[in-house]
Write a sequence for this structure.
């Protein structure tokens, strides 16, 4: 599918396309200098309890949470932005309403931001599997969906870009089956001694790896292509002794690691159109998203995020903030026993549970030159701190993470 104008969007959706890339203007220009491109990931908690609620909330410019989130985005002004936990709707109304009613409208005097291109696609969340995937003796409900969700598309994601999206080259991996990953960490039933028997053989024929989806969204920057590798692996909690969510989180992260390695390591990977394999070794890419995994703390399987961080083709700019370090010290609790440096934290979780951890990542390929990086977590009492705050948060329990890279020129 090629980029479409707004006037053509209705006919494209009517034709049953699974996603949309929606230019808002013909000649929009990037907001930063020609030398730098800012990539950002933000779990904005723009999820709602019921289908249609997000569209309703965004249909006017008055939703306070959405205004706060838009202000955070306007302050940071990313060129390519992934938003996690943004409910998906098949007509892409929410994605367009957030752009027109919030991002393109000044929030508290901040400069509006324009994104000519938007990518949205279905999520596994809330899609009924027809199976008892949590083994509670009943079929139905959010825990038996292909990805946890009370309705289809809950906790989805969306990409906004100032640079053209190469729509015809987008790859999605929503339907990839967990069992088709060689050496998959399929969960064992704790009451048996059989390996990988939490799911029945029949269930394994339909259980998908991705809890939302995995997207390879190529963006044209300075005449070259940068692959935005977007995902949001399941939290490694909310399960039992079988640790099915922790294992799934590990393998969702691994999918991108193998995809980046390419060659034989990625030979098993197939996309939703039947294409196989991963990236070329010389590809420019940026891994973006809430990976729900800290390298040293939290509940994820040890080594999960290191599958990406330790890759020779990946660089970790180590975004940091003084606000994160301050919050860890002030909140105490489990934070005081953490092994990681709190300045790298990106999420403010319950201090009696996981505590504050590094969950959100922007990881460029080593083919890209990093200029700057950071986490939007202002110290208390400084400008912008009212947008992060403490529980109940005015925006989200996650913080926007950004990395600036040098634009590639042919």
């Amino acid at each position: 599918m090629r980029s479409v104008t707004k006037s053509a969007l209705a006919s494209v959706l009517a034709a049953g396309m699974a996603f949309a890339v929606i230019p808002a203007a013909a000649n929009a220009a990037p907001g930063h200098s020609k030398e730098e491109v800012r990539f950002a990931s933000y779990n904005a908690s723009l999820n709602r309890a019921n289908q249609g609620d997000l569209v309703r909330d965004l249909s006017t410019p008055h939703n306070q949470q959405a205004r706060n989130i838009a202000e955070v985005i306007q302050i940071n002004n990313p060129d390519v932005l992934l938003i996690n936990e943004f409910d998906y709707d098949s007509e892409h109304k929410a994605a367009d309403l957030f752009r027109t009613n919030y991002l393109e409208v000044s929030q508290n005097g901040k400069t509006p931001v324009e994104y000519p291109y938007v990518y949205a696609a279905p999520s596994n969340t809330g899609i009924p599997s027809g199976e008892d995937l949590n083994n509670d003796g009943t079929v139905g409900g959010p825990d038996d969906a292909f990805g946890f969700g009370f309705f289809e598309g809950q906790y989805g994601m969306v990409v906004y870009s100032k640079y053209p999206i190469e729509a015809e080259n987008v790859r999605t991996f929503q339907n990839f089956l967990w069992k088709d990953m060689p050496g998959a960490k399929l969960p064992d039933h704790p009451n048996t001694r059989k390996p990988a028997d939490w799911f029945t053989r029949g269930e394994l024929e339909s259980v998908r790896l991705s809890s939302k989806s995995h997207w390879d969204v190529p963006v044209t920057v300075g005449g070259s292509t940068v692959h935005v590798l977007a995902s949001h692996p399941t939290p490694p909690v909310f399960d039992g002794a079988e640790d099915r969510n922790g294992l799934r989180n590990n393998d969702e992260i691994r999918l991108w690691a193998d995809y980046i390695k390419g060659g034989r390591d990625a030979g098993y990977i197939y996309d939703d159109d039947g294409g196989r394999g991963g990236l070329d070794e010389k590809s420019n890419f940026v891994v973006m998203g809430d990976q729900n995994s800290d390298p040293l703390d939290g509940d994820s399987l040890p080594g999960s995020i290191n599958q990406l961080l330790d890759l020779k083709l990946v660089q970790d700019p180590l975004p940091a903030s003084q606000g994160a370090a301050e919050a860890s010290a002030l909140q105490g609790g489990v934070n005081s026993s953490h092994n990681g440096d709190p300045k790298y934290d990106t999420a403010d979780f319950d201090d009696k549970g996981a505590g504050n951890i590094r969950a959100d990542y922007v990881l460029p390929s080593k083919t890209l030159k990093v200029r700057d990086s950071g986490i939007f977590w202002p110290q208390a009492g400084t400008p912008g701190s009212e947008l992060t705050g403490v529980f109940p948060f005015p925006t989200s329990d996650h913080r926007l993470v950004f990395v600036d890279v040098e634009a590639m020129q042919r």
About this structure: Residues 1-18, 25-29 have pLDDT under 50 and may be disordered. Residues 244-261 form the longest helix (18 residues). The chain has one domain: 6-406. The radius of gyration is 20 Å.
